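Entry 14: structure prediction run for Malonyl-[acyl-carrier protein] O-methyltransferase. Input pasted below.
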Amino acid sequence: MNDFHVDHRQVRRHFGAAARSYEKHDALQREVQTLLLDRLGFYLEEPARVVDVGAGPGRGTALLKKRWPKAQVIALDAALPMLREAKRHSAWLKPFQRICADATALPLPDHSVDVLHSNLCFQWIDDLPALFGECVRVLKTGGMLTFSTFGPDTLKELRAAWAAADGQPHVSRFLDMHDIGDAMINAGLRDPVLDVDRFTLTYSEPRKLLEELQGLGATNADASRARGLAGKSRYRAMLEAYETMRVDGRIPATWEVVTAHAWGPPPGQSRRIPGGGEMASFSINSLRGSRRR
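Run finished. Output tokens:
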């Protein structure tokens, strides 16, 4: 399903470096956050614990705390500088907590989370079985997972412009909605619902898009990327190729956004395993007393 690998150290380093500039460039992230907040309307309970995975500078976490002020709300991010910035959005009287950790190794007890939320973070994780396995592990039965991620058409213009300049991967690749949905089902998540929206942002020149990506920390994290600078001639060739794509005098940049939600399964619900077949697991306590005498 996944033929590429993400350089996680690169992701952590670049997002850490962009912590202070992130909110100057996050118009799209705020728009997608609105879509996720709409999905949370399907959750009708009063949660005790809400976790924002890949919280970045914490604006989305603050909105979750505002929505559920009595809940324990946790901002979790792999980049420590982002969490330092998130303190600015944490209210003095009703603060949210901050934890530095990876999404594939959540430092949370089994079945302890009511709502697991993530806005435009999962695209930086290439091990979907580990990611959604962790989601299943920490979610309570009937708990809600809601997230957004980028699809393969994201930055297709920039990718095409670089392809015209050289054959090296300069833009991160992203998985198709169907691959994501299959991984959710394989992990045992219940009733997944996925949608795709496409946003087109425009710029006066290609350099403005590149500056925005750098300000967000959303630079190429493909492990197979070429190291070192691209070279002035190839960089100019990319800019010239991008210039041919102007529409109404503006440079377009497409963002394909997948939004999804699903529910925590009951104990023992089976999950698919590599090679075919399914496996279910139960706690030892649930099996006590079932043996005949």
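Notes: Strands lie at 49-53, 72-77, 97-100, 113-118, 139-150, 190-203, 251-263, 271-272, 278-279. Will compare against the previous run tomorrow.
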